[in-house]
Design brief:
The complex is a heterodimer of chains A (329) and B (447). By secondary structure, chain A is an alpha+beta fold. Chain A has three domains: 98 residues, Ubiquitin-like (UB roll), CATH 3.10.20.740; 86 residues, Alpha-Beta Plaits, CATH 3.30.70.20; 105 residues, no CATH class. In chain A, helix 2 crosses helix 3. The radius of gyration of chain A is 21 Å and the shape is globular. The longest helix of chain A has 16 residues. In chain A, the strands form four sheets. In chain A, strands 2-1-5-3-4 form a five-stranded mixed sheet, with helices on both faces. In chain A, strands 13-12-11-14 form a four-stranded antiparallel sheet. By secondary structure, chain B is of the alpha/beta class. Chain B is 45% helix and 14% strand. Chain B is globular and about 75 Å long. Chain B starts with 17 loop residues before the first helix and ends with a helix. Classes of the chains: A alpha+beta (329), B alpha/beta (447). The interface between A and B is medium-sized, with 33 and 29 residues. Bound molecules: flavin mononucleotide, iron/sulfur cluster (2 copies) and FE2/S2 (inorganic) cluster (FES). FE2/S2 (inorganic) cluster binds next to loops of chain A.
């Protein structure tokens, strides 16, 4: 099992673990932000470049540093590797650049965007970006289109993270949408507006980090901080039936999949659960959803936790503290 | 120092056809490789030759070949990169158009060395007519027993295919090329794994440039040691240079590596000097991606030594005072050339060709183009120059494939060596001939 040190925190991880996964095992502020990686989607990651880190020592065998910053979500840990994330001013500066690039053609009209409040790009910009934009040109815009009766695509907001494409590839059984064109006019498209007719297509809404794919049955009905998330389940023949209900009083305003602390879906849900089951009696309510991440949804009760592993000062300490348990989180 | 290995028979009438090519010693390398040498021995000759990839990066070909994984029962592929889309580079087209059988012969000898039973030539869409020439040559090679089953009775089988791309520069990047060849969207893959381990259809694959593969023919014929005697230092052999710009004799030249840049520009054997008796201002020595150098730095290194046409000499001084041999696209600019306009044109190209996968390249290339456009048309600010510098630095080294670097380097180099020219555009917009252009465009779109 390789050992890796990230910003001074050492951890032993299973073979094949990526730097990002190792950082998530450590937890706390040293976890690189990720806009395209998705734990439950194969081959995701590598695109957005927000998760870049510096590898200051390649491995025990080959201690040379890597010449360029690497995408932590797509770089496998080697034994003895040393990684710098927030302790490297270069990385922090480069990440600011990436955030600026992601926002370059983004409309920045959060007050009229339905995703505001649960948008990863908002959080990213707040935590890692600059306060001002230096871009002074017209931004790229697209018309909004419907993909199917229940999903709205507003490409203007898309950051081309490819997550929805991977969902369509891996979760649904027939992909009719993908990326068309290239460069900064590339767009997510259902080839000539083919309708996505598939029981699991709604999951593209949940993986979309921004307001590009939204649920038409909920769009503009409420700001997300005015609805209360509740864990609930039902017996569903198609999926696990474990969901989050977004309640406005006694009304089920929206149904979504449950997400982990990195806001990544734990179990995919079917379209029937998501779009059809909007009555309270459809569901067994478990209780309020615990939202363990920085978001207005958690109404300021969230603070970043200290890593469970103390900085390693020397090799002797390293052996003593190299517990892989994650219980402190 | 004229030395012709690849273009030796370029002047022979009808060399495109199999009969003439064969009469002038064609397919001797295949005969020698298949009948006298083992695959390992051919790889060994290529290693000894010191041949370096002619597609741009200059990676030693023998070493690349020896990295090829050879798991039991798994197919291996050789793919020839004929996507040649780098502005300023047109040597592969010349070679394929004039001596198509040289590439076919190189493909057979190289495939044999690598143990590939299927090989592909991936050619850019705009070279459609060249693909016809290649296909014709391949048909002739099949008809004469150089391709197909049991070649020369040795039991070696090989099929060679030509695949035409759809006109995207990015499909010249080797992993995007493989995606495209598989029928997918031409997005570069995230490496590792490298093609030598998992390439075409997930099988071990070698991707080489047209010229690299063609050079295997003289290497097999003369032996790696002999080949290594040509050239200078670690830049062995000959190189095709596509010379363009303000010179008297633009065209494709085969040079022995190590020719002084000054001789290449001014001698009548090559470029024949600057057109209309003008002064040399700058050179982009290896295709649009490599750093531009002003006249004094392209003719001599920072140490005052004559700059040579070789991998090492052109790179002398790093990016601060040097550049790269790249793909051999040698673009010469005279004293009247606007560096700002040239850079804007290059930036426009990279903006247009970015595949859009990673955010720094997708967004940054367009941003740089727009800033350059406004400087060029008299609407720039002094702070734009620093902004450009900052943006290119935030793209370089932070992308999936080297297109991001290729977009960043020209911007960095132009500002490094010609900053005052950018300042001039900002401070004296009245001197710019086309300053009204910007207003015209704007009023047109409002009308
Ligand atoms: C954006 C981009 C475009 C490229 N275009 C070409 C090309 O047109 N032809 C080529 O031979 N190599 C091209 N390359 C380099 C290839 O990725 C690869 O390195 C080369 O084909 C390897 O062949 P070699 O070792 O024989 O040089 C390109 C690379 C990049 C990043
Ligand atoms: S629509 Fe959303 S999920 Fe799909 S690529 Fe764009 S930002 Fe990513
Ligand atoms: S650097 Fe540019 S061309 Fe290369 S993968 Fe990224 S977006 Fe595509
Ligand atoms: S999360 Fe790693 S590149 Fe996007």
């Amino acid at each position: 099992m390789p050992k890796v040190t990230i910003d001074g925190h050492q951890i032993e991880v299973p073979d094949g673990t990526t730097i990002l996964q190792a950082a998530r095992m450590i937890g706390g502020p040293i976890v690189p932000p990720a806009m395209c990686y998705y734990s439950t989607l194969k081959t995701s990651g590598g695109y957005c470049r927000t998760c870049i880190v510096k590898v200051s020592k390649g491995s025990e065998k080959d201690p040379r540093p890597m010449p360029k910053p690497v995408a932590s979500c797509r770089t496998t840990v080697m034994d003895g590797m040393e990684v710098q994330n927030i302790t490297s001013p270069e990385v922090v500066e480069a990440r600011k650049g990436v955030v600026e690039f992601l926002l370059l053609n983004h409309p920045l009209d959060c007050p009229i965007c339905d995703q505001a409040g649960e948008c990863h790009l908002q959080d990213l910009a707040y935590e890692h970006g600059m306060a001002k934009t230096r871009y002074e040109f017209e931004r790229r815009t697209f018309e909004k289109i419907d993909i199917g009766g229940k999903i709205k695509l507003h490409m203007t907001r898309c950051i081309l993270c490819y997550r929805c494409v991977k969902v369509a590839d891996q979760v649904t059984n027939s992909r009719v949408h993908g990326v068309m064109n290239r460069g900064d006019v590339a767009e997510i498209s259902t080839y000539i507006e083919n309708v996505i007719e598939n029981d699991f297509s709604g999951n593209v809404i949940d993986v979309c980090p921004v307001g590009a794919l939204t649920d038409k049955t909920f769009r503009f009905q409420s700001r997300i901080w005015n609805v209360n998330p509740m864990d609930a389940h039902r017996d569903c023949p198609k999926c696990a039936g474990k969901v989050t209900l977004w309640m406005k009083g006694d009304v089920v305003a929206r149904v979504s999949a449950r997400k982990d602390k990195y806001a990544e879906v734990i179990d995919w849900i079917c379209n029937e659960c998501r779009f059809e089951k909007k009555e309270l009696q459809d569901w067994v309510i478990e209780g309020p959803t615990n939202i363990e991440r920085h978001s207005v949804i958690s109404q300021n009760h969230y603070t970043l936790k200290e890593p469970s592993h103390k900085p390693v000062l020397n090799a002797v300490d390293a052996v003593d503290s190299s517990s892989t348990s994650n219980s402190g989180n | 120092m004229g030395k012709n290995l690849l273009l030796e028979h370029d002047h022979v009438p009808g060399i495109q056809s199999y009969e003439v090519y064969r009469k002038h010693g064609g397919y001797a390398a295949v005969e020698k490789a298949l009948k006298q040498l083992s695959p390992e021995a051919v790889v060994e000759e290529v290693k000894k030759s010191g041949l370096r990839g002619r597609g741009g990066a200059g990676f030693p070909t023998g070493m690349k070949w020896s990295f090829l994984a050879k798991p039991e029962g798994v197919a291996r592929y050789l793919v020839c990169n004929a996507d040649e889309s780098e502005p300023g580079t047109f040597k592969d087209r010349y070679l394929m158009e004039r001596i198509p059988h040289l590439l076919v012969e190189g493909m057979i000898a190289s495939s044999f060395a690598l143990g590939a039973k299927s090989a592909y030539i991936y050619i850019r869409g705009e070279y459609f007519y060249v693909s016809r020439i290649l296909e014709n040559a391949i048909d002739e090679a099949y008809a004469n027993g150089w391709l197909g089953k049991n070649i020369l009775g040795t039991g070696y089988d090989l099929d060679l295919y030509v695949q035409v791309g759809a006109g995207a520069y990015i499909c010249g990047e080797e992993t995007a090329l493989l995606e495209s060849l598989e029928g997918k969207r031409g997005n570069p893959r995230i490496k590792p794994p490298f093609p030598a381990i998992a390439g075409l259809y997930g099988c071990p694959t070698v991707v080489n440039n047209v010229e690299t593969i063609a050079a295997v023919v003289p290497i097999v014929n003369m032996g790696g040691d002999e080949y290594a005697k040509i050239g200078i230092g670690k830049s062995t052999g000959t190189k095709l240079i596509s010379a363009s710009g303000h010179i008297n004799k633009p065209g494709v030249y085969e040079i022995e590596l190590g020719v002084p840049v000054e001789e290449f520009i001014y001698s009548d054997e090559y470029c024949g000097g600057i057109k209309n008796g003008k002064q040399l201002k700058a050179v982009v020595a290896g295709g649009s991606s490599v750093p531009i150098l002003p006249a004094h730095l392209i003719l001599k290194t920072a140490n005052g030594e004559p700059r040579l046409m070789s991998y090492e000499s052109l790179a002398d001084g790093g990016f601060a005072t040097g550049t790269m041999l790249g793909s051999g696209g040698f673009i010469v600019m005279d004293e009247d050339t606007s560096i700002v306009k040239n850079l804007w044109n290059f930036s426009r190209f990279y903006h247009h060709e970015s595949c859009g996968q990673c955010s720094p390249c997708r967004e940054g290339t367009g941003w740089m183009e727009k800033i350059l456009h406004r400087i060029l048309h008299g609407h720039g600010k002094l702070s734009d120059i620093d902004l450009l510098w900052d943006i290119q630095g935030k793209i370089e080294g932070k992308t999936i494939c080297p297109l991001g670097d290729a977009a960043a380097w020209p911007v960095a180099a132009a500002i490094r060596h010609f900053r005052s020219e950018f300042e001039e555009y900002v401070k004296h917009p009245e001197k710019i001939k086309d300053v009204q252009h910007y207003y015209r465009l704007n009023s047109l779109s409002e009308a």
